[in-house]
Amino acid sequence: MASNVHRNGVAQAQRGSTKLDRPNHLRTASLKPRQVGSALRRSSPGSLAARNGDGVPGRVRVAVRLRPRNTEEMMADADFADCVELQPELKRLKLRRNNWDSDTFEFDEVLTEFSSQKRVYEVVAKPVVESVLDGYNGTVMAYGQTGTGKTFTLGRLGEEDTSDRGIMVRSMEDILADLSPETDSVTVSYLQLYMETLQDLLNPANDNIPIVEDPRTGDVSLPGATLIEIRDQQSFLELLRIGEAHRVAANTKLNTESSRSHAILTVHVKRSVVESEDIVSTENNDTSHLTKPAKPLLRKSKLVVVDLAGSERVHKSGSEGHMLEEAKCINLSLSALGKCINALAENSAHVPFRDSKLTRLLRDSFGGTARTSLIVTIGPSPRHRGETSSTILFGQRAMKVENMLKIKEEFDYKSLSRKLEVQLDKLIAENERQQKAYEDEVERINLEAQCRIAEVERNFADALERERLKCQMEYMESVKQLEQKLVSSQERHGCNYFEDGCGEGPTLSSADEIAEVKKLFENESDRRKAAEAEVEYLKSQLGRNTQAEAGGDAEIIKLRSILEDEANQKKKLEEEIIILRSQLLQLNFEADQMRRCLESESSVNAFPAVDSSMSQVRHSQLKEAGNGQKSSVAALFEQVGLQKILSLLESDDANVRIHAVKVVANLAAEEENQKSIVEAGGLSSLLMLLRRYEDETVRRVAAGAIANLAMNEANQELIMAEGGITLLSMTASDAEEPQTLRMVAGAIANLCGNDKILMKLRSQGGIKALLGIVRCGHPDVLSQVARGIANYAKCESRASNEGIKSGKSFLIEDGALPWMVQNANNEAAPIRRHIELALCHLARHEVNAKDMISGGALWELVRISRDCTREDIRNLARRTLSSIPTFKSELRRLRIDY
């Protein structure tokens, strides 16, 4: 045995007989990395079969490599021919029995002693590496006698000569060149199986790693093994150096540095790929726009490179003591591997994978789902013909093993998430850009609108001034006509109400007119008293004459006639007194209106209609005074007409406007007047008052009028259509006076009782406006709020029963429940009654039960079912508590009887 023989027995002869590869940097420069899209390809069984060179896609491929003679063999076997003859062109190997007979074997590849490391990699390992990059598991394994070049073939680092690089280094070069650092990852573990114990070569302290098999899939995992992520080739070389330093080796007769353990390098590859888009054709074979979107996939595969320890015979290797125990363990594990391969080659029902940890680790490589290449290394020396024959037969049996190749991929959620985040960022940026453009456009439109509004305001001011002048002229003309009518009326009744002054024409003196009428009234009263006294006198005289019976029949008849005349005269006087009283009331009203008209200069537009109306009323009352007396205001608007009344709502005079809106409100209180008011445009005028004027009295009376109109169902939809709820909400938020808030709350409460406008009422802020009014705290206001909530809850419950509405109550969503619970036991009976009714309607639906329990409404329902003064509400609360399962379970939990 020569002490200077290389560990693998190949290096010196290999250097002298092979052609050097190009330097690493030139080779790397000549390689073109695959594009990421190349990972889209799928290796079909046909393509895999083509790579194998036969029709069996998953068969284990076996190559044989002959080691050149070393120095010792050249000296010892100089007179003997090699026992092995290679025919690489026919992929055949002849093993001589003697000088005349030989056995012939065929392999997938036959590599001579002159084959380069690059040639060996391309023939044996590169197809497996490509399969791993496509998503399949792969195994490259070296088997042979000690000293035949297994470690040289697989694990040579090539630090002195790059052409000596082994399969491990070259495989990692191809893997790193094909992967994308942004989306893919490579992790490596390096282990050795020594004395049936699995040890970590990267962390020697971890010297007993368990082997775990998934009972469902059969996959083998090694929890606790060190996994290191690889980013570049240099870090991988450093990892191999560390592993080789920790691997067990010893000096034997067959090899100066013989490996005493099986080394297993596992490379885990994770790739993110995009499945190609599938084109979907229609019935007309139109494929222009129908495609299935691509799906991101994550492919997980692993490459296992196994450098088996060499088989040896003890009498040849000279192993003793501990080395003998090592040899026994090696031979036993290789024997177990041979048994498994024999069983697989013969399609045996039982394969003894569990006989050795080595076979358990290689379960996926032989008979599993991995693509496996086996390189068997042999020596040329005839002294080791038995070991060479055993190695060749091992390779022959391995060629009969078939694996079921299976790609391993899963949906890549992380990649999809990253892609969606990028798209989201782009959409957010685009939305912000569009929002900025929209805001700029809105600003430009606002500026244009402001300019147009300013121009319209100027035109309106000019037109208003012209109209004011026109109305002023019409007013002066109307005053003249009124004065003429007044003069003619006074002349007809024999009263002089005008005085001549410096030839300027007649002038009206209201005070003198009233004084004259009073004087006439006093004269008539005196005459009536005198007539009554005379009647009494005549009665007494008649009595005396009757008692005395002193007169004749003629005198009696005469006295009766006189008496009748006096009665008729009395009746006429009474009628005149009634007429004079009516005139006095009307003159007082006209005098007050005339004084306001003469003193106010800002109400020019309204006076013509007022004065004209007054003269018409006065003329009508004087004409029909004998038909009875009506209220002055009612008679005024009955004679003037509804349109003229509504026109006064737009008067610039605040007093006229307030008086007119009060009259409209009084008229709206009568149901027979409501239709006429709406048809004449009264509702629009009242809403205009809420929108335009800030006077508290106007808004209060207008809201009251709208509340009166809202009692009619036909008017409720019209109020909603004209934006009435929005105006009422604005008034509710601005007003502070309790009477105004009471009117607004009453109007909204009336609207809450209409099923047809339920959703629209809530969407326009009606419920929130109603809840905002409770800030007032006045009992009358709170009573209207409670009435509105009860109406809304009743309509909403009816809609839920009919299937029109589903889901939680809007009252609960808008925050009405806390206030309802707080005031459910209010001292004011109207508030308490309405809230109790509303709670019962809310509780009739299961979807509201949890919120009512958490909000404390359940306790109030129990109280209502016991103590409510109204029997119908009390019975409704009891039925609700007994019919809703959530309430029943909660009451049972709290042990409450109801």
Provide structural commentary.
The structure is a single chain. The protein is α+β, with helices and mostly antiparallel strands. Helix content is about 55%, strand content about 10%. It has 35 helices and 21 strands. The chain starts with 10 loop residues before the first helix and ends with a helix. The N terminus is likely disordered.
Cα distance, first to last residue? Answer: 105 Å
- How many individual helices? 35
- Biggest sheet descriptor: 10 strands, mixed
Q: Helicity level, as a percent range?
A: 55-70%
SS elements, strand count:
21
Overall mean pLDDT: 77
| Radius of gyration (Å) | 58 Å
Oligomer: single chain
| Model regions low in confidence, pLDDT < 50 over at least 5 residues | 1-51, 495-509, 601-634
How much of the polypeptide forms β-strand, as a percent range? 5-15%
Task: Based on the model shown, name its key terms.
single chain, 898 residues, alpha+beta, three-stranded antiparallel beta sheet, rod-shaped
Lay out the secondary structure.
Layout: H1 11-17, H2 24-30, H3 45-52, E1 61-66, H4 71-76, E2 84-87, E3 92-96, E4 102-106, E5 109-111, H5 117-133, E6 138-144, H6 150-155, H7 167-178, E7 185-194, E8 197-200, E9 212-213, E10 220-221, E11 228-229, H8 233-246, E12 249-250, E13 258-259, E14 262-274, E15 278-279, E16 291-292, E17 296-307, H9 314-317, H10 322-345, H11 357-361, E18 371-378, H12 385-398, E19 409-411, H13 413-492, E20 498-500, E21 506-508, H14 510-548, H15 553-599, H16 607-623, H17 632-640, H18 642-647, H19 654-668, H20 671-679, H21 682-692, H22 696-709, H23 713-721, H24 724-734, H25 738-751, H26 758-763, H27 766-772, H28 779-801, H29 810-813, H30 817-823, H31 829-843, H32 849-854, H33 857-867, H34 871-883, H35 885-894
Parallel strand pairs: 1-5, 1-18, 6-17, 6-18
Antiparallel strand pairs: 2-3, 3-4, 7-8, 7-11, 7-14, 9-10, 12-13, 14-17, 15-16, 17-19, 20-21
Helix pairs in contact: 5-7, 13-16, 14-15, 15-16, 16-17, 19-22, 21-22, 22-25, 24-25, 24-27, 25-28, 28-31, 31-33, 31-34, 33-34
